[in-house]
């Protein structure tokens, strides 16, 4: 009895997640939406105390699984027929490498997408992230913004897994979540 109930719950959850994901892909195909993405898998949390923005050897970076994950995400964009107008990324190596491995077009660094994990200026980081999303939505085409968990969570309330995409749009000044795409 309990196993049957659990099976039903899991089936309903999987069905809801699949419908949510299909709505997210459709929104991206329609333009005017942003794929706000947490970088692919980079083992660990935060960065070492010796972190330097321009030096990847001092940062937490993608592992082989993370690089493969980023390539697979790019393939999913192509398989779902999403024409990406622009790809912007945080200046952190793991975010930039994710964006480049997806091979969705030229990649532009956008400091507004930089992580503010451990930064005392959480409000400033949040506003910068939201401004980057608003600018991308106003372009009218599908855009991919590769950033960090803290940025995605602050802007949307969603705690994304590595490589997860939160599809958003803007209504007034508010960022609205349209759907999620699992890695």
UniProtKB/TrEMBL annotation:
Span of the signal peptide: 1-19
InterPro entries: His_Pase_superF_clade-1 (IPR013078), His_PPase_superfam (IPR029033)
Protein origin, superkingdom: Bacteria
Gene3D superfamilies: Phosphoglycerate mutase-like
Keywords: Signal
SUPFAM superfamilies associated with the record: Phosphoglycerate mutase-like
Pfam families noted in UniProt: His_Phos_1
Name of the protein in its database record: Phosphohistidine phosphatase SixA
Organism: Methylopila capsulata
